[in-house]
Design goal:
Length: 382
């Protein structure tokens, strides 16, 4: 069995909540070896290594801590292992290219990069070296997304016509490290979280976006920086369908659940309508402990295992596992390039070659937001 050593660039929220515990679980299964996490500040690594949930679930596991630039750690990693890029959105490109040039497979958190040309460069470099770059769009591994993809592609719903998606993160995001990078020049609510539902609508339907209009509202962050903390987007698809996407960092901290989110789609087969509604936040669980809450059993949870201890479950874990197993599949293939082409064509994992529409929408969305919501065409969605 192949076992990958991992260098992780970034040690923030997504690493704590999903990536590190998933890698620890994969280490239990023998798929992952040494894990090194690189961060600029010692306190990031201290907080991560001291996280109580992770320690309870994996009492025997630790990671190597490195304070400083990730480049030197990547350079020390033997070739054809794995680099995880979990940095703020605008820093992904340099980190992914550094990893590829050091002959490493890459797991990148979404969005891969902010510009189409950068995605094309990544695709070329990865293909030249027969390496996998997988973009971690974990909603794809929510069974409801896979069910919808299967049913849509079987023609059961009819053709997508109109849809609405919402993803509002909690107000308290503004007080986190976000305020240092989630500024008008780097990102916006649509780029950060709207991309999930763009990716999902393509994942379900196979349609491609043709034009984008994003209206953004600037708002102050606690440290005085300004960000587009509220966005309303309209995306037109290549069959003429229209998707409205609203995003913000505004969901009240007092509200149950970690955010509010969901997708509604309307379809037609010419003779009857079709309908799909995913409530992606309320998953049917209500708790009252010291407060009322609505935990999601579907994204990422630690549950007791029959062997004793805790194991991570949910589509957050499955997504990381699928990417690591795909890296192993490439390594074990007699023809690595053919294995990579197969992964692109299957379309279950998002790769630079099969999800370019994400960068196209983000890039067009950025141009639109900066011009007050003008319609920006995507000329040749691939
Ligand atoms: N649902 C998802 O797929 C999902 C969810 C959350 C975050 N993400 C993505 O993960 C990435 C990181 O998000 P996060 O929530 O972990 O953010 P975070 O702010 O909690 O962590 C960012 C990490 O990058 C490091 N860093 C390096 N250079 C930095 C810089 N110049 N400014 C600020 N931080 C810097 C920080 O020290 C920290 O370890 C983003 O690209 C985000 O879009 C994806």
């Amino acid at each position: 069995m192949i076992r990958f050593d991992v260098v992780m660039a970034g040690g923030g929220m997504i690493v704590r909540d999903q990536i590190l515990p998933s890698l620890y679980q994969l280490r239990r299964l023998g798929l992952i070896g040494e894990i090194t996490v690189c961060a600029r500040h010692e306190e990031t690594l201290r907080a991560l290594s001291g996280d109580e949930q992770i320690r309870e679930a994996f009492p025997a596991q630790t990671f190597r801590q490195y304070v400083g630039a990730y480049d030197s750690m990547i350079a020390h990693l033997p070739k054809r292992n794995l680099v995880v890029v979990a940095l703020p959105d605008h820093l992904h490109f340099d980190a992914v290219m550094t990893a590829l040039k050091a002959d490493q497979h890459v797991l990148a958190v979404k969005p891969l990069v902010l510009y189409t040309a950068e995605a094309a460069e990544i695709e070329k470099e990865a293909s030249r070296r027969a390496l996998l770059v997988a973009v971690e769009y974990h909603k794809r591994f929510d069974d409801r997304s896979l069910m919808a993809r299967r049913k849509y592609r079987a023609g059961d719903f009819g053709e997508f016509k109109l849809g609405a998606a919402v993803l509002m993160e909690k107000w308290n995001y503004r007080h986190s490290n976000f305020q240092n990078w989630f500024t008008t020049d780097n990102s916006d609510a649509f780029t950060y979280i709207g991309c999930h539902y763009i990716d999902l609508v393509h994942f379900i339907t196979g349609l491609l976006p043709r034009s984008v209009s994003v209206y953004g509202i600037e708002d102050a962050l606690p440290n005085g920086n300004t960000g587009y903390l509220w966005t309303d987007a309209r995306v037109i698809w290549n069959n003429g369908a229209c998707l409205n996407v609203q995003n913000s960092l505004s969901f009240p901290d007092e509200a149950p659940g970690t955010n509010t989110q969901g997708l509604t789609m309307y379809f037609s087969n010419g003779e009857r309508g079709g309908y799909l509604r995913h409530d992606d936040q309320y998953r049917g669980v209500q708790y009252v402990t010291s407060t009322y809450s609505e935990p999601s059993p579907d994204y990422f949870q630690y549950v007791p295992a029959e062997s004793g201890g805790l194991v991570p479950v949910g589509y957050g874990y499955r997504s990381i596992e699928a990417i690591v197993r795909a890296c192993a599949r490439v390594e074990q293939a007699r023809d690595r390039a053919a294995a990579l082409r197969e992964i692109d064509a299957e379309g279950i994992l998002a790769t630079p070659a099969n999800s370019r529409y994400n960068e196209q929408v983000i890039e067009a969305g950025r141009r639109s937001i900066l011009s007050g919501g003008a319609i920006v065409r995507i000329e040749s969605a691939t």
